Amino acid sequence: MNADLEKSLAEELARAAGHAPRPAHDLRARIEAGHRRRRRTGTALSAAAVAVLSAAVTVVITVAVTVAASPPVPVATRPSPTFEPSAPATADPALPPVEKVWPGALHTVPRNLPNGQELHPERFLDDRSLLVRTLDVDRIDALWAYDVRKRTARRLVDVRSPRGTVVTAPFVAVGDGLLAWWTLRRERNARVVEIWTAPVTGGSQRKVATLKDAPQGIDLTIAGGRLVWSPWGREGVYRMPLTGGAAKPVAGSAGHTLLAWPWAARPRPGVRKGGNVTFGDLVDLRTGAREQAPVTIGACSLTWCVSGRTAMRRDGGGRRELPGDATAGDVPALDRFALLSRRGADSVLYDLAGAKGGMLRSTGYTPVLDYRMPGLLTYMRGGEQVVVNLKAIR
């Protein structure tokens, strides 16, 4: 890779960082390991490009499809007034540890597999099987099913990335009996994204799509027998059959980003236009119905909006004060969970639907909760990883 190409890639990745997922808890170790490996193998990535690639854990792709303009749809009106975040209380209320609040949802897994590779949790496939990945520098090298009860791992897929791959997808999609992910590589100064699938029960990977000259990365999911995604740094929702074919824009998605099929919203995370709230404007891509958030700052999921220490449903009801501060721009996960910060080093996992929360007493890296990582919260404690199965919380 020549100096001009490296500089161009670094600049593109920097522009994409606003929409990138939060860095994993082991990011520092992964950066250092990747740097040592590159020095051993003679890979000539510049330090700037390595830093941006690792911090974003993402890449730059463009879907070469023009989004057709859609006719305007009336926005549903709500009788409730907007609200602003409340002032912090004089003292944070005492809360029990999360393992006391939801004991059946917590599991501990080792930091490394028996072969020495670091284990990176992805999502639960069922109540005991955890999908995990292992990495070769910045790329997935295998996907595994880890049994949280027996504490054993079974290799599902040996992931093979094309020559020249820069980074693979930060999240693996699951649906219709398949795993799906994407890779990014350079080809004659153009960016090429390839989408791959493999059986969720294990087997060989299969390439189903090649997207050429596309910017930044994509948020990919599987829904209704199709691959569905939104490009990072741009707007619109696209889809194609699981068997491959042409990517087509979804009618009514122009200007929006995929939130959870069939809903899209705007503005996307990382975009700040005046007082706009992340995902404040919601559209149902099946019906065209739209809803506007009852907040002026903060972030919203399908049902809930959080702003500072206040939460409210999109319909204007259910207002409540939170036992901590919601991070600006953080979208509630699974449409109900928020990660709150408090005075000191502790964090709170809070269930907006159930109006209760528990303390996360982590040692090491700060917990990360991302709405694109379905049903999973991971943090370090005592040399092991604690994995919270959010879908097990009733």
Q: How would you describe what is shown here?
A:
The chain has helices at 3-16, 27-41, 47-56, 98-101; strands at 75-76, 106-109, 120-124, 129-136, 139-147, 152-158, 165-168, 173-175, 178-187, 190-199, 206-212, 218-223, 226-231, 238-241, 248-249, 257-260, 263-266, 281-284, 290-292, 299-300, 304-307, 310-313, 320-321, 325-326, 337-341, 347-351, 356-360, 376-381, 384-389. The chain has 394 residues and is mainly beta. The chain has a single domain (3-392), classed as Methylamine Dehydrogenase, Chain H (7 Propeller), CATH 2.130.10. The chain has a five-stranded mixed β-sheet with strand order 1-19-18-17-16, with no helix packed on it. Strands 7, 8, 9, 10 and 11 form a five-stranded antiparallel β-sheet that branches. β8 and β9 form a beta hairpin. The longest helix has 15 residues, at 27-41.
Topology:
Blueprint: H1 3-16, H2 27-41, H3 47-56, E1 75-76, H4 98-101, E2 106-109, E3 120-124, E4 129-136, E5 139-147, E6 152-158, E7 165-168, E8 173-175, E9 178-187, E10 190-199, E11 206-212, E12 218-223, E13 226-231, E14 238-241, E15 248-249, E16 257-260, E17 263-266, E18 281-284, E19 290-292, E20 299-300, E21 304-307, E22 310-313, E23 320-321, E24 325-326, E25 337-341, E26 347-351, E27 356-360, E28 376-381, E29 384-389
Parallel strand pairs: 1-19
Antiparallel strand pairs: 2-29, 3-4, 4-5, 5-6, 7-9, 8-9, 9-10, 10-11, 12-13, 13-14, 14-15, 16-17, 17-18, 18-19, 20-21, 21-22, 22-23, 24-25, 25-26, 26-27, 28-29
